[in-house]
User: Fold Mitochondrial PPR protein from Escallonia rubra.
Amino acid sequence: MKPIGVRPAAAALSWCRSLPHKHGTCSSLLLLLPPSVLQFFSFGFRSTASNPQFRRIDFNNIKKLEDALSLFDEMLRMRPLPSIVQFTQLLTAVTKMKHYSASISLYKQMGALGIPINEYTMSIAINCFCHLSRVNYGFAILGSFFRRGVVPNVATFGTLLKGLVLEDRVPEAVNLFLKLTRERVCEPNAVIYGTIVSGLCRTGNTSRAFQLLRLMEVQGKCKPDTVIYNTVIDGLCKDRMVDDALTLFSEMIEKCISPDVVTYNSLIHGLLNNGRWNEVIRLLREMGSRKISPNVCIFNTVVDALCKQGMAELAEGEVLPMMRQRRVDPDVVTYTILVDGYCMRGQMDEARKFFDSMIDLCLVPNIITYNALINGYCKSLKMDEAMQLLRELPCKGLKRNVNSYTSILQALFRSGKCGAARNLLDDMQAAGVVPTTLTYCILLDGLCKNGRLAEALSVLGMLNSKGIYLDIAVYTAIIDGLCKDGKLESAWDIFYNLSSKGLTPNVTTYTVMMNGLCQEGVLDKANQLLVKMEENGCKPDDVTYNTIVKGLLKRERYREAMTLLEEMRARGFSADASTIEIVVDLLSAKSQDPAQLEMIKRILPTFKHGEKSIE
DNA sequence: GTAGGGTTAG
Assistant:
């Protein structure tokens, strides 16, 4: 795609960014002028009378790009030229076929030929740039509105806002939205509000989205509709605030805004994430009484929840027949979830069976389906099968993505094949696939765990020098690697300086650091860290407790170990197998001091029932 | 007459 003028883009963007809040500027005033006045400034385009010949053309019948292009050429040869409306219909047809670049090229030709482009045509061009993730070029077209004296309207701005959101530029979208309202450039409608609300939810600002919903209610000009409620309810569910979502749900019903299948799906999804099956059943019944039929999304949500709880067979045996009975066809997503569900349980034959059966059902596996299967083979360390699938992807017209590579990378490191892993990483980068922080985490952790600490540190240095963002998991892997290599001081140094990197240690980081301290017998420091992590708002988990208890037991500090075991128990954690093993070993040791033996025996009741093998 | 269309599942 050839870039079009960058200057108009910059001008339009700066208009959007830099308007003073209190007073309008010339350009904002320009927007408020009536079209008749603006026409005065516009270029003198040739007037084109509508051509009756083209009234007969059904633009919806255009099926291929070539049809549209030859029709365009034919239209250009007509005298008089067909009307702008007919040209716009043609552009719509091309755009609906998702040939965005072609649509833009036609738009440019129209401009060059002096066809009087209007706000409809220009909005189509903006929309095409947005779909190509080039919203800045969309703003360039906004600039040409001004030059041509065409007045952008709510549809134009709606398209631009959507384009910003698509490029994750939500703060800019919000600013533009605020300016439009403040300067009264256009009256936002439900779509504009919907775009902003969804952008806010998608970027973790659900509370702001909620506020906007409230504002819509208070202002009363554009009342929130089902879609707006759905968006906020879904955002709350994704933030694990299901009860708030349920409250908002009751509220919409009270206000006579009908929930639909999307509302129910978000709520069901949120409830299932918390294992609240009873409430899900209640909602499903309620849907029935409202005559809302569950669609394939709802079923997929249920299938996914079952699979995540290791019940792929139940999903296959119960839910699939139920779907067929209700004439809801399982789709690629359904099958992908089931493939993944069997993969997670290591049932690769079942997973493969499902994958292969998709062809018979005319379902085409996509990259997510392939990645699920690749990941399954990797988890089972069936590397030949995984590599075979990776090779197969381009033949199926699918593009390998970072997930395809990362699964295999992790499995290669787990199998100790560091060389092959590094080669794969090179292949991946050569293919232009950008690593994520997870990729780097797997790389550094893999190197550390395979005794290549020096290499890991050198890669870390290289990544840092390139300014690549690395998350806490990467540093946790490095701290662990250093500790296990006996470099406790270096590990502590990194741990201590995490906050200077803007990173906050999580429960794993603390546990890894404590484990290092315990190994070196620096138990008091480990104990202090246990207190400190809670002060910092990070709750220890069962691994943390087991780590310290084991450290204490190994250094014969039974009394402290016992205190901690009791604390664990009070918090609902239990000793793990390796901790129990240490206690068993201590009990069976021959040369045991009777007083110590007594102490160890007193530890026993702190274990829960069912943790046998102690007797 | 012609444009944008916001929400759910892997």
Confidence is low (pLDDT under 50) at residues 1-9, 16-54, 609-615 of chain A. The radius of gyration of chain A is 31 Å. Residues 541-615 of chain A form one domain.
